[in-house]
Amino acid sequence: MEELNFDKVCEYVLNGGSLITYCEGESVRYSDAINWIYGDEVKHKKYEEMLVGRGEWVAQRVLLELQKVGFTDVRKLCNDDGSLKKVSELDDTTAAAIGGIEIEESKEDKDGNEVSGRVRKIKMVDKLKGLEMLGKNLKMFTDKIDVSGRVTLEDLVVGSMAPEKAEKAVDKKESEVVETDDDI
User: Fold this and answer.
1) Nearest-angstrom CA–CA distance, 129 and 136
2) Cα angle vertex 171, ends 169, 173, to 5°?
3) Which three-class secondary structure state does DSSP give residue 46?
4) Cα gap 18→151, rounded to integer Å
5) Whose CA is closest to 104, among 89, 90, 121?
6) SS3 (DSSP) at 1
7) What is the mean pLDDT of each successive set of 10 residues along the chain, which is 184 residues long?
8) If we measure between CA atoms, which residue out of 75, 31, 34 comes closest to residue 51?
9) Which of 7, 50, 61, 122 has its CA 20 to 30 A from that of 30?
10) CA–centroid distance for 81 within its chain
């Protein structure tokens, strides 16, 4: 495939891109490109390494976006006088934490008088959910199970039986214990 530069393909994929979008940009059929890569053992191995790298890149981007959501300060949405900033004035972190914006423009009556003013509503994404997901990634919220006591193999076997079979096995065990006690 003379149309593609393999090193550029690898760099693109490593930096979070996909082979599909790269092929679209180069007007090359994806199936031809993938066959070209996997048809050569050296290219195949290097491409697989780039996919692993891209996975790490994606994981880091997800964590970065979760951090933006989890640590956004809503005060950054406002000017010093309390009015909302224009969207173009928001920093990247604050803008990333916005789930939606609703704007209602002013209306005029038939005489040209303003009846209602401009209303802007900003919905933030769920900050607690973002923090929860970050915490789970850091394994901060693991459920701890207190395991105490002794479980025998026999207990496990009896516990895995159907209830009626388990009851018969327990009855048999008790009768064997009684007989053993008499022999002592």
Assistant:
1) 10
2) 70
3) helix
4) 51
5) 121
6) coil
7) 88 92 94 95 94 87 86 89 90 88 79 76 84 80 70 74 65 56 49
8) 34
9) 61
10) 37
CA distance linking residue 157 with residue 166, whole number of Å = 9
Place of tokens 């008790």: 174
φ and ψ at residue 117, rounded to 5 degrees: -95, -170
Contact 86, 114 (CB under 8 A): no
Interatomic CA distance for residues 8 and 43, integer angstroms: 12
CA 151 to chain centre: 38
Record the pTM. 0.52
Q: Which long-range contacts (CB under 8 A, 24 or more apart) does 72-75 make?
A: 72/96, 72/97, 72/124, 72/127, 74/124
Cα gap 60→54, rounded to integer Å: 10
Judged on CB neighbours under 10 Å (0-12, 13-18, 19+), 72 is: buried
**Angle of CA points 141, 130, 65, to nearest 5°:** 125
